[in-house]
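Replying to the earlier thread about multi-chain prediction with a worked example.

Input:
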Amino acid sequence: MKKGLIQFFVIIFLLPMANASAQEVNIYSYRQPFLIDPITKQFTEQTGIEVNIIYAKKGIAEKLQREGKYSPADIILTADFNRLIEITNKGLTQAVESEQLRHNIPAQYRDKQSHWFALTTRARVIYASKDRLENVNDLSYEDLASERFKGKICIRSGKHPYNISLVASMIAHHGEAETKAWLLKVKENLARKPQGNDRGQVKAIKEGICDVSLGNSYYYGKMLMDKEQKPWADAVNIVFPNQQDRGTHINISGVAMAKYAPNKENARALMIFLSSEQAQQLYASLNMEYPVNPKVEPSELVNAWGDFKADNLPLTTIVKYQATAYKLLDEVKFDL
Amino acid sequence: MNETAKYALSVDAISINYEHKKVLNQLSLNVSDNEILCLLGQSGSGKTTVLKAIAGLLPLQQGSISVGGQRLSSVKTIVPPDKRGIGIIFQDYALFPHLSVLDNICFGIKETKQQAEFAAKALLELVKMEGYGSAFPHELSGGQQQRVAIARALAIKPKVLLLDEPFSNVDHHLRQQLMADIRQILKQRSVAAIFVTHNKAEAFVFADKLAFMEAGKVVQTGTAQSLYLQPCSAALAESMGEGNWLNVVVVDQYRTLSNDLGEITSTEPHGIDVGQNVRQFIRPNQLSFAIDGSGQGKMIDQVFNGDHHICTIVVGQMILIINQPLSQKISVGAQVSITVLAHTAMLFDG
Amino acid sequence: MQTMNQIRAWVLISWIVSLCLVIPVIALLLQSFATDTALFKHLWATVLTDYVINTVQLVLLVLLFAAIFALPSAWLIAMCEFRWRKQFQWLLMLPLAMPAYVVAYIYTDLFDFSGPIQRSMRALFQANTPVGEYWFFEIRHVGGAALMLALVLYPYLYLIARTAFLEQGANLFQVSRTLGLSPWQSFKRVALPLCRPAIVVGLIFIGAEALGDFATVHYFAVNTLTTAVYDSWLGHGSLSAAAKISMLMLVSVMGLLAIERWQRGRQRFYHKSSGHIIRFKLNKQQSMAAITWCLFLLMAGFIIPVLILMDYAVNYFSAGWQDKLWQVLLQSICLALVAAVITTMMAILFVYTTRLSSKCSTHIPLRISMMSYVMPSTVLAIGVLISITFFETSINDWLVNLGYPPPGLFLSGTVFALIFAFVVRFQAVANGTIEASFLNISPSLDMASKTLGKSNLQTLFSVHIPLIKKGIFTAMLLVFIEGMKELPAALLLRPFNFDTLATYVYQFVSDEQLEQAAVAAILIVLAGLIPVIRLTQTGKTSP
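Result:
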């Protein structure tokens, strides 16, 4: 009886680590399982390399830092640019020199020192009510501060990385003072306190709480594919802002190799796989993102939204203003 | 003017069921003004239930309860405990542990704080607890807690005070003094009281009148003497003090015949039919014995009890307990003859 | 001399174990000493005041709501007789099995402007009422968040208060009645104050949960001090500021506790239970009111959320049901179970040590091991991470220096870290319960046992443990239920490919897709439900 119990516990607790000795690669991932699991499954099928994953939305950098040189992590996947740069700046990554990666990923989407690589891009778009708003094609982020949208804007927390990046890009373009004024006006225009996620804002437009919201582009496609959420998406137009000037703000998801990666070769193989046409296709079709690999087209649905002009502000510049963005958001009490 | 108005408290034929068991069964009792009634009875006879019913803590299934002629409890309506003006003191005193002595006493006084404290201090003095006002209950001895509980109950100027085994947690040597003190306080304040005990000694000292309960009923009420000497039931007879049981046959209005002791004559007619087989109860001080070489009895044990010896004597099949004056020098093993002293016979069925 | 040494051994072990448990807090304390004045200045100048106000509001409201929910129902169940009382006695515990963030999700979904209730209201009254044209309470508000938290946390207070009411006995209350106080006054002036220590304990648990909560308040867009903790850590990249804020939270709670203790002064609350409780028979209207009240709590805290979850589960069954859920379920149960057993054993160790000697030093392990409960769970998880990895890397370095191959992260890379974090976090829950049950054992039993030749250890096993079986069971169940729901520590510390039901569900909740994880959420509730029912069944043997 006792022996059986011990065996049971061993199986339950240690099974997940049982394949530790085989060919493997370990991922710390900020990105969600529904997206990563299908891709890594294909990778394992093709290479025989087992993939172990820890998902977490917070604290991965802290974990890596604390584990130091004994960390089992090989690869870090992030859902936004901020986190990617954070781990790079903290010296938790190493350079990966690979012809294939350079080939698959255009130069503006990877680090000059080869510490990080973008895998997908997505635009921070404006969702505008179909019924209540006309002439929305020329909208810009700056317009959100105008009288026109008094009490008409919905947005998620300003502190969310996606919004932080946007604010940082505003600072890069307009300077701190002007951005603060912009934030104050946007805040005044809010229909309700910042809350929920990007989809929730679209839902709010559908229900008539507000007329415009900010959101990542892929949510539009994902909502269209969900039976419950399709009516929300149907109620709005997707608008790529600032087409007349600098272009729409984009963010990236990316990958980096951990500084002390124990399975360097496997990690490298996985990174190359992630940038390959096969994996990029999955990113495009599963999550409606824009693949970085130029050979891969976005999904049909995404293509239907048309081409857009992206803000070509270097990602590193955005990161430079991130702390300032945080400060400004606190100063204007954006979320309060 | 109804019958109940004569009494400070009148309990009229009340019945109480608890979990389908009849705890009180048509129980009646009356307490006059300024009278202390002791409710005696074996444990489980329902004594505490009577107090709770009087305090309005239990509903009645039958009967009614009146105080000063005013009906407080009946089957239909019940004046809530806080509107009855009846004080109660529990066996464990139930002092509020989170309040100081003074706050405990002030608890029920519905006047300004200043007035309440003034009254409370007077009460503390009354119960000889001056200077303990700021103490907490857990810092007091049992007797002191008892006094505080009395003061607290008196603070609401109750018409009737109920005491549930009030002296059982007090040291023996303090008990006499405490009983005397409290009795004096009650008399001084003209409070009618009922107190519950299973200890007859307490009842004798403290009460004016005794009521004996058996199976949810009061079976006899009267002075201590009448209950001691003329108990109406075997259980009452036994709980008022020890005694000897004899099987006897009724000879006539005054006399009974015992196998071993011969004829016993009562000072009063006993009212039982001639020729009946009954049990006769004789207290140890209603018998005496003397050395008699041809006597049927033999002393087998002798215990010193302060003011007399308690002797065990075998007569035929029977063992008798008889009190022996200390002056009488008879020792264990002696052959004795037994005399029945003059008393009113206590006869009970089967 | 023999016994003195024995006692010393107990005290020593207690100290060592409890110090292990406070290591994470110490790690954070050290972390918080790092200077970060610029960031603090910035926070003070901007949002911190609002956060503090929100936090105080939130905690006070949660405590208020929880008291409103728990105390009357505890009183009704303990002291009154009405229909279905016996059933309600355990039914009222059920909300404990619901994770707060799940309830929050469900109710915001329900009461939001775009939720079904307001939608149908709009449909009912007027086709196209714009926003602000009619009044409806804003669910995403401090009040809403507090209500949700109170709804799932009140069972703690209910459980403790009900026991306390029962233990008071009837006499004190009855005396109060005969002294001229109405039932309500008696409740207010006698029954309630006497329960003060118990109520304070219950409120501390609830307050600590509310204070440390992030998932729920975040969902409700209420910015509290935990927001500041996250902002400082993740946004401003300053773990030390985050640790500092957490430490301030810890200190302020400790301060409040100290004030409460001091304010009690020489008062005692213990009254040897006496007076058989005869429950008030409620009349028809009163019974109806009591049943309605209990039913309301049960519906709001349990039945409605479960029904909605079931609705989600049916609608999204294909997405929600995955074979790996079985393994996740088993892992969650094992993890919670192991944590429950360990915390309870340690609680017994700590509490029993306090019985062996009245010296102050023997009580410290019991007290300090409870400290971490007041820390926000995520911060505590970081503390665990810091301390464990520090330990591991030191050992690795040492072995490498000696020329051995490094063993790697043998603790933080395995479930050990997770178990350790759970134990650190929930030790207070077990301590509280075990301490309470030990209090009911007269010290003369200890002496009797020892004079009969039993050692301390033998006494513990032959006298105490049989007597506090129920307390042991309760402690284990409470920790188990908490463990099933625990989120932040699990998120940060789980090893590769390891999921608990809570992390699984949260992945979807954080993405506002609870529907997809409804099946898993129901499993959490079910796993918590069975012990809750058992918990109250064992409670039945008490008066």
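The beta strands of chain C are 80-81, 280-281.

Feel free to reuse this layout for your own posts.
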